Amino acid sequence: MQSRLSFHDEIRKNKVKSAALIVVIVGIFALFGWLLSAVLGQGTFFVIMSIAIVVSILYVVASYYNAEKIAIASVGAKPASRAKHKKLFDVVENISIASGLPMPKLYVMESSQINAFASGRDPEHAVICVTTGALEKLDKRELEGVVAHEMAHIANYDVRFMTLAAVLVGLIAIAAEMFLRSLWFSSFGGERREGRGGAALFFIAILAAILAPLLANLVSLAISRKREFAADATGVKFTRYPVGLRNALIKIQREQLSPTEMRRYPRALAPLFISNPFKSKIRGLFSTHPPLEERIKRLERM
Predict the structure, then answer these.
(1) Do residue 171 and residue 294 come from a single domain?
(2) All residues at 6 or more sequence positions from 61 whose CB lies less than 8 Å from its CB, including other chains
């Protein structure tokens, strides 16, 4: 018989693992930066990194401060109505009291699939969006589990955490792109390559420029999966009823999304949802979410 899982331990472990993975991305960035510095020289390295930092931060910060507006507009969600969506308001108000979080703005997305997402840079600017399918197919306890999971993302500042990961991944990707493009210019060729670290080091730098963005992105996806586990456990902390979320995930697992329905979901927003809308297409290391089977098993042991 398997031992019981403590949601407190699950929250702590997944947050620690997320932080450790951020350190891994920082390490990739530092190592790649050292290679560029050795191959290109301090001056060129400084120019490339300065441009990469400015572009990455400007892009991500603009998205960060408008995250909830972009997400809601992308899925065509409408503000929830207290008269029409009383069950949703009642559930969110209960979880808000249990979690100590302010009441987020509520939106409803037209989709037959059971799904939901939360967005916003902090609890004061948070929104929760649920699909019409979730409102129709989930009972009150199951909807509580889904809402608690989304409130957990808000409580854990996951948008802020994933923004940090996005900045670091963006820095690596932009720096790698600039380095590879610089190879077309003669000023980075011939004798300069040999004198700045040798052919072997230069070859390693090219290989790193190709692999570093991919590796950093894979680590970022691993962080996303850990934050989902943490949100599941934090949601159980809010409701003290893991069965609700477990049953909701079981219903999601049984759904088959049609190609027409799938087009309602922008791929860029897939990491935000409680379940990846494209779960049948993306698995393993390239998935933004842990397998539903594993999430369900962990909830059964809480």
Answers:
(1) no
(2) none
